């Protein structure tokens, strides 16, 4: 004849089982979060733009420039440029020659790199 168990012990067993399951689920979730935070990001493919596309962005509010084989969206810099709107003459154009005349100024290359959006297509 089978042994009878007390109701209290079956409740303890159920609670223990539930807690164990929740603990395992939490561990797997935390491990996934750790991986997500510490994973090496997959590099995004660099966009490529032709001069025709660059030319569509030739205003102060929407200013792209092609410089030394790269394309930059400098629209956000309009109000911050030390010489005012003088640089807008390069909007929508390939402006490597003009840029190379002024790049000797301290910090210009680093600042420009923050505006890069892609490569200039051949």
Please explain how this structure is put together.
With 122 residues, the protein is an alpha/beta fold. The chain has two domains: 42 residues; 73 residues, Flavocytochrome B2, Chain A, domain 1 (Roll), CATH 3.10.120.10. The protein contains four helices and five strands. It has a five-stranded mixed sheet. The longest helix is centred in the first third of the chain and has 32 residues. The mean pLDDT is 77.
Features of the shown structure:
five-stranded mixed β-sheet; Flavocytochrome B2, Chain A, domain 1; alpha/beta; single chain; 2 domains; 41% helix; 122 residues; 14% strand; elongated; 5 strands
Fourth CATH level, the homologous superfamily of the largest domain: Cytochrome b5-like heme/steroid binding domain
The total of helices stands at 4
Give the CATH topology of the largest domain: Flavocytochrome B2, Chain A, domain 1
Count of discrete domains? 2
Number of strands: 5
Structural class: alpha/beta
Adjacency order of strands in the biggest sheet: 1-5-3-2-4
End-to-end separation in angstroms reads: 88 Å
- CATH class category name of the largest domain: Alpha Beta
Report the mean per-residue pLDDT as an integer: 77
Q: H/E order of the elements?
A: HEHEEEHHE
Note poorly predicted spans: none
Shape: elongated
Main sheet: strands, sense, barrel: 5 strands, mixed
Helix percent band = 40-55%
| Radius of gyration over C-alpha positions, nearest whole angstrom | 30 Å
Task: Name the CATH architecture of the largest domain.
Answer: Roll
Strand content bin: 5-15%
């Amino acid at each position: 004849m089978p042994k009878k168990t007390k109701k209290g012990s079956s409740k303890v067993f159920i609670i223990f089982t539930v807690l164990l399951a929740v603990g395992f689920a939490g561990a797997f979730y935390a491990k996934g979060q750790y991986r997500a935070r510490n994973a090496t990001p997959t590099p995004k493919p660099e966009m490529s733009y032709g001069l025709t596309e660059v030319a569509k962005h030739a205003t102060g509010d929407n200013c792209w420039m092609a410089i030394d084989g790269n394309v930059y969206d400098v629209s956000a810099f309009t109000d911050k440029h030390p010489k005012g709107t003088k640089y807008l003459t390069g909007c929508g154009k390939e402006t490597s020659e003009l840029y190379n005349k002024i790049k000797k100024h301290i910090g210009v290359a680093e600042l420009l790199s923050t505006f890069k959006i892609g490569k200039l297509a051949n």
